[in-house]
From TrEMBL:
Pfam families: DUF512, Radical_SAM_2. This is Uncharacterized protein. Residues 247-448 form the DUF512 domain. Residues 99-243 form the Putative radical SAM N-terminal domain.
Length: 467
C-alpha cells in the first residue's frame, strides 16, 4: 500500500499527468480539474484552461486517468467541460495528429475518490505511526486503479465484480498485488476476514492473462517457514505471476504487537535466502528469469553479498526495495570509471578548503553510501548515520529519516561541513515525515555553519551535487 502523502517514490506507468499526488484535490466534484495546458496543443486549441473540469469523455464520466487513456486513444474525442468562471458546461471535439500529445495535465490520476482498504493487516505500517502524524499519512489506499497507474500494491479484496470485469476488459496489466500468504487460515490471520476475495480476484486476473507482480511482507513466525514454502509453490505454479518480492516486516515503537524481525536475526535471514535459492534456480532454467526476489534488507541482515544485476530481471520491483543496493553499487563502479576526473576535482577542492562532506544516511544504507565515499580521498567524505528515534522499532531506511532526528543528532557546530542530504527524506511538498519543511531544515543547518546540498540517493546525482 502507498498513502497519498507518501515520502516514497512511485513508478508511473502511463503518460499524461504531472500531478504529484494520486488523488485529485477535489474528489467531491465531478470530472477532472485541469492543472495545466501546453501552449499550441490540441487542448489549448479548443480553449481548455487551468481550473476548468473535464466532466465526460465520449459520454463516459471522467473518474480516473484510465478512462481518459482508453477514451482518448484515437485522434479525436468528444469532451464535456465545466467552466467555474460562469458555471457553464460546454461540449467540444478535441483532435490531434497521430502520436501527438493532448497537452493537458490533470490534478491527479483518480478523480472520484480513492478506494480505501477494508482489511485489518497486522503489519500495516500506517497503523504503527505516531498519534501526532498528519492525517494524509494514515490514509490506507487499496485502489486497483493506482496499482495499474502508479505501481501501488493492492490486495484486491475490495473489488466489486463490475470493477473486476472492467479491469479484465481493459486488460489493466501489469497489476501489483499484495499476496502475503496462500493458505486461507494464514491469510485470514494476516489480512482479516476479506482475505478470500483477494485470491478469487487474483485468479480471475491470471486466467484472463493479466500479468501480476506480487509481494509478500514476511512476518517471523506467521507466514514464514512452511507457509512461505506453500506460497512460493503457488507462485511457481502460476507463470502469470512474473515477479514476487519478499520484504521483511518493518515495525515502529508505536505499537505492541511486534518486537523483533529479520534485522535482529542473521540466521533467520539466511534461512529465507536459502529457501528461495531452488525456486530461483528452477525459474531461471524454465522461465529464463529469476522471478523470486528478496528485498535488499535480507542480504544486509544475513551479512551476505547482494546478487548480480542480471538476476534482477530488469528490476521490475525496484521501488519495493528489490535491487536498489545492487544498482547503487554498480553505479559506483561506473562513476569510478567514467567520472574519475570529477571525483578527483571534488577531492582536491575539499582538501584545499579544509572542508569535509557528510553524507546523511539511515542505518541500513551505511555500507552502501560508504561505497560512494570510498571513491574520494580518505577523510574528505564520510557517512553520517542517523538513528531513527522518531519511529523506533526496526525502522532504519534513509527515506524515513525525520527532521527531529537529523537536527537532534548532527553537531551544533557544523562549520566547514558540507551536508549531502538525500532528497527522499522529503515528500512532493518538501515536508519530512514529522512535518518540517525543507527550507526550515536548511535554515537550521546553515545557522550551524553547514553548506547544505540535496540530491537523489544515486551515485551520479550525489556527485553532481558536489561538483
Amino acid at each position: 500500500m502507498a498513502e497519498r502523502d507518501s515520502n516514497m517514490p512511485s513508478v508511473p506507468t502511463y503518460a499524461g499527468t504531472v500531478a504529484p499526488y494520486a488523488l485529485s484535490k477535489d474528489p467531491s466534484s465531478d470530472g477532472a480539474t485541469v492543472l495545466s495546458v501546453t501552449p499550441d496543443s490540441p487542448a489549448y486549441d479548443i480553449g481548455l484552461e487551468p481550473g476548468m473540469r473535464v466532466l465526460t469523455v465520449n459520454g463516459k464520466p471522467l473518474t480516473d486517468m484510465i478512462v481518459w487513456l482508453w477514451e482518448t486513444e484515437d485522434v479525436e474525442a468528444e469532451i464535456e467541460v465545466f467552466d467555474p468562471r460562469d458555471n457553464t458546461v460546454a461540449s467540444a471535439v478535441i483532435e490531434r495528429f497521430p502520436g501527438e500529445e493532448w497537452g493537458v495535465d490533470f490534478d491527479g490520476v483518480v478523480f472520484d475518490g480513492m478506494r480505501t482498504c477494508v482489511n485489518a493487516c497486522i503489519f500495516c505500517f500506517m497503523n504503527m505511526l505516531p498519534k501526532e502524524s498528519r492525517s494524509t499519512l494514515t490514509i490506507r489506499d487499496d485502489d486497483y486503479r493506482l496499482s495499474f497507474l502508479q505501481g501501488n500494491f493492492v490486495t484486491l479484496t475490495n473489488m466489486k465484480d463490475p470493477e473486476v470485469e472492467d479491469a479484465i476488459d481493459k486488460m489493466l496489466s501489469p497489476m501489483n498485488v499484495s499476496l502475503h500468504a496462500i493458505t486461507p487460515e494464514c491469510r485470514r490471520k494476516l489480512i482479516g476476514r476479506n482475505a478470500p476475495r483477494g485470491i478469487e480476484v487474483l485468479e480471475r486476473f491470471l486466467e484472463a492473462g493479466i500479468e501480476i507482480h506480487a509481494q509478500i511482507v514476511l512476518c517471523p513466525g506467521i507466514n514464514d517457514g512452511d507457509e512461505l514454502l506453500a506460497t512460493l509453490e503457488y507462485v511457481e505454479a502460476h507463470p502469470g505471476i512474473t515477479s514476487l518480492a519478499i520484504v521483511p516486516l518493518g515495525f515502529t515503537k508505536h505499537q505492541k504487537r511486534f518486537t523483533t524481525s529479520y534485522s535482529d536475526d542473521v540466521e533467520a535471514s539466511r534461512a529465507v535466502v536459502k529457501m528461495l535459492e531452488p525456486f530461483q534456480q528452477r525459474a531461471r532454467e524454465e522461465r529464463g528469469c529469476t522471478v523470486f526476489q528478496l528485498a535488499d534488507e535480507f542480504y544486509i541482515d544475513a551479512h551476505l553479498p547482494v546478487p548480480p544485476a542480471e538476476t534482477y530481471d530488469g528490476f521490475p520491483q525496484f521501488y519495493d526495495g528489490i535491487g536498489m543496493l545492487r544498482s547503487f553499487l554498480d553505479e559506483v563502479e561506473s562513476v569510478r570509471a567514467v567520472r574519475s576526473l570529477e571525483v578527483a576535482r571534488v577531492s582536491e577542492r575539499l582538501g584545499e578548503s579544509s572542508r569535509r562532506v557528510l553524507v546523511i544516511s539511515g542505518e541500513a544504507a551505511q555500507g552502501t553510501f560508504g561505497a560512494f565515499c570510498s571513491m574520494f580521498d580518505a577523510g574528505v567524505i564520510d557517512v553520517c548515520t542517523i538513528k531513527n528515534e522518531y519511529f523506533g522499532g526496526n525502522v532504519n531506511v534513509t527515506g524515513l529519516i525525520c527532521a527531529c532526528d537529523l537536527l537532534g543528532q548532527l553537531p551544533a557546530d557544523l562549520t566547514d561541513i558540507e551536508l549531502l542530504i538525500p532528497d527522499v527524506m522529503f515528500n512532493y511538498d518538501g515536508l519530512t515525515l514529522d512535518g518540517l519543511a525543507r527550507d526550515e531544515v536548511t535554515a537550521e543547518l546553515e545557522q550551524r555553519g553547514a553548506i547544505v546540498h540535496f540530491a537523489t540517493p544515486a551515485p551520479n546525482h550525489l556527485l553532481d551535487a558536489l561538483v
